Amino acid sequence: MSDNREAVFYDLLNKYEILLGAQGWSDPEIQAELNKLSADFKANLSMKDDST
Question: Is the pLDDT of residue 2 over 80?
Answer without folding.
Answer: no
